[in-house]
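Task 17 of the worksheet. Students: predict the tertiary structure of the chain below and write it out as structure tokens. Keep your answer in the requested format; marks are given for formatting as well as content.
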Amino acid sequence: MGEDSEQLRHDIEATRTDLARDLDALAFKASPSRIAHDRMVQARGVAQTGVDRAKGLSRVGVEQARVQVRQTRAEPRRAIKPAAVMGAVLAALVTLRRIRRRR
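Model answer:
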């Protein structure tokens, strides 16, 4: 009988320890300040990803502009021709629209 009561006390103490550990874990997990901190860290990560992506795109854009400038310097007629054609097409479309409005 003595052993049974001693074993029971030991089991109760182990259960109390486990319960205390579980309650501490739940309190930590449900802490509003910890949740806010986790969300802030997550938002910073998303924002940093956006910044990094924008920087990468701007680098690509700068590099594309450099290539275009080099091509224009190497072959100025080739670069001017598409711009002249687009300008002429745009002027023709504007003129046609004005003529149609007058009618």
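Marker's comment: The two ends are 113 Å apart (CA to CA). The chain is about 95% helix and 0% strand.
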